[in-house]
Specification:
This protein has about 80 residues and is of the alpha+beta class. It has one domain (about 1-75): Glutaredoxin. The chain is built from three helices and four strands; from the N terminus they run E-H-E-H-E-E-H. It has a four-stranded mixed sheet.
C-alpha cells in the first residue's frame, strides 16, 4: 500500500489533486492511503513552499499546481 500525503491548506487545487490521485489509484488497482495535511509546520517540514505538495512513501514528488495524470500514474506505479 502506498502512503500519499497531499500538502495544502484545503484550497480547490488541493482538493482536485487529492481526487485525481484517488481516482487514478482506483483505475490502476493500486491500494493507497491518502492523507490531507493542512498544518503549515508539517508542510514546511517537508520543505514545500508551494502547494499543493505531494508526498509518496515519504518522498516529495511534486509541489505547486495540479499534477498531470501521467505524473500521478508514474508515482503510483513505482
Amino acid at each position: 500500500m502506498k502512503e500519499v500525503k497531499v500538502l495544502g491548506a484545503g484550497c480547490k487545487n488541493c482538493e482536485t489533486t487529492a481526487h485525481i490521485i484517488s481516482s487514478r489509484a482506483e483505475k490502476m488497482g493500486v491500494a493507497i492511503h491518502i492523507e490531507k495535511v493542512s498544518d503549515m509546520a508539517e508542510i514546511l517540514g517537508f520543505g514545500v513552499m508551494s502547494t499543493p505538495g505531494i508526498v509518496v512513501d515519504g518522498q516529495v514528488v511534486h509541489t505547486g499546481g495540479i499534477p498531470s495524470f501521467d505524473d500521478v500514474d508514474e508515482w503510483l506505479a513505482e
